[in-house]
Specification:
Blueprint (H helix, E strand, L loop, with lengths): L6 E12 L6 E2 L4 E15 L2 E5 L3 E5 L5 E18 L5 H4 L4 E4 L3 H14 L10 H19 L20 H13 L6 H8 L3 H12 L3 H19 L4 H8 L4 H12 L3 H6 L4
Antiparallel strand pairs: 1-6, 2-6, 3-4, 3-5, 3-6, 5-7
Length: 271
């Protein structure tokens, strides 16, 4: 991506639990980003193809066919934008296709702010345009920060970058995204991959900087937060929806991650 990573938004749509795309292939005059909030889909952009779920954004450059097919009901933000300073060919490489964000809580917060724009009017008119531009830019800033690129200049040595995660760990992440909100044993995944539990944990951490258990817990906390914010469901019902055995256990985990019990968190979003 260009070192000037400021973006100029051209359009925004938010879809909730979409069963399928209206168009399985689309080509835009501008850059587009599909940022997944829940569910998953398959994509193909040029020679790149794969699956994307929460924590992933899929980016397509202008005049390039974007092929996409839903796997499970998809809630996502679809954003159209231009770069303020168009990136060069080398800078585009590695910035197209699926880009994964590790800090899921911060990403969920950004999505919450984006959702809040939808009921306020046209996002391409001020003051909403400025807010939208900020939150879209925040996604790119987060990607840049996690990749260690912020502050990098032409004369600096190239930052250390981890290779793309090996295929087995990409498969592990996809499996965890699919099963995160249901009870399961991590041994199911390690057996599926032909690994011991220790091997799975070590290789997953090397690829994504968190253990498989930490990754799943993060997903569950993010979904719990949204259910507390947007529904009146009791904690027992929320626990059942996200794969925990009881509301009491969920309360303990949530309090440890958020620094407050679920009841206090919910009150912050009540009017």
């Amino acid at each position: 991506m260009s070192r000037n990573w400021l973006v100029y938004p051209m359009g925004y749509m938010y879809w909730v639990e979409k069963e399928q795309f209206l168009l399985e292939q689309d080509t835009s005059r501008f850059w587009t980003m599909c940022a997944v909030e829940s569910g998953s889909f398959r994509y193909r952009i040029g020679e790149q193809e794969g699956e994307a779920g929460f924590g992933d954004v899929v980016v397509c450059p202008p005049e390039t066919p974007f092929n996409r097919w839903t796997i499970s009901p998809l809630t996502f933000h679809y954003m159209i934008f231009m770069w303020e300073e168009e990136p060069g060919r080398e800078e585009v490489a590695g910035r197209v296709g699926k880009l994964s964000i590790q800090d899921l809580e911060r990403l969920a917060s950004t999505y919450r702010y984006l959702r809040g724009l939808m009921g306020e009017g046209l996002v391409l008119e001020e003051p909403l345009f400025g807010r939208f531009r900020h939150w879209l830019g925040d996604i790119w800033r987060q990607l840049e920060y996690e990749r260690g690129l912020i502050g990098h200049h032409a004369n600096d040595p190239e930052p250390n970058r981890e290779d793309e995660p090996e295929a087995a760990m990409q498969a592990a992440r996809s499996w965890l995204l699919e099963h995160a909100y249901e009870p399961f044993l991590m041994r199911e995944l390690s057996d599926k991959l032909g690994l011991t539990a220790v091997q799975l944990t070590r290789r997953f951490r090397a690829a994504y900087r968190v253990t498989p258990s930490e990754f799943v817990t993060g997903l569950r906390i993010v979904r719990t937060s949204r259910l507390l914010e947007e529904t009146a469901l009791p904690l027992e019902a929320i626990a059942e929806r996200i794969g925990y055995e009881s509301g009491f256990y969920l309360s303990r985990i949530f309090s440890r991650y958020k620094g407050m019990p679920p009841s206090a968190y919910r009150k912050m979003f009540q009017v």
